[in-house]
């Protein structure tokens, strides 16, 4: 389980786990404050903010060539983009420094931190247990814009990125130039753009109006790919290895930096043969 659907909203499990961990940690700190009179809340929030900012900063620096031309994108965290290890290290350093001369804060701060980490770890393990199975590419027939039917299996044989989208979907439209650029930059990876539920004429008009020239644009009028892959909303981007086995899924708009990291994982798997 990588996302949770609440009515029309599709929420990332990762985001929900972070929020739950923060709430539980602050709840434990508040309990200590009420029962023992020791308020670790301010220090806990300094840890959280410092860790969050560091995790984001390290990710941005790792992809500095993307963000230097559009620095405002560093503030867009809708599709993630954090270095969790760096954030955790900095949070621990902040905690150690701020409690160095205040021994009374150490126990409640440690208890709050461990409680938050337990929620995060337990939730992560649970979500992995219910994550989409690494299943093969569905045996689905799709249509090219010229009306010719082709099986999705015909695109297999090398790492593959399958993007489920629609012309009426704003995040689909926003991420399309990023995916088009990635297709041009990575000829060793097959990108397939599977429109869900629209006609070839509608798709062709949209691509022409936007000046988008992409290979492997197909239509899936009945939305079989979305249904067979359990995708709860659009856009949904599926990453398959060279064997045609699902490795990961991203629901929602993809940024250039996040897409780059996911493609790097696919490329590494192809080089090493480890899946």
TrEMBL record:
It comes from the Bacteria. It is found in: Cell envelope. The chain crosses the membrane at residues 6-31, 110-131. Residues 131-268 form the Thioredoxin domain. InterPro entries: Redoxin (IPR013740), Thioredoxin-like_sf (IPR036249), Thioredoxin_CS (IPR017937), Thioredoxin_domain (IPR013766), Thioredoxin_ResA/DsbE_sf (IPR050553). CDD domains: TlpA_like_family (cd02966). The keyword Isomerase does not apply. Keywords: Cytochrome c-type biogenesis, Disulfide bond, Membrane, Redox-active center, Transmembrane, Transmembrane helix. This is TlpA family protein disulfide reductase. It comes from Massilia consociata. The lineage of its organism: Bacteria, Pseudomonadati, Pseudomonadota, Betaproteobacteria, Burkholderiales.
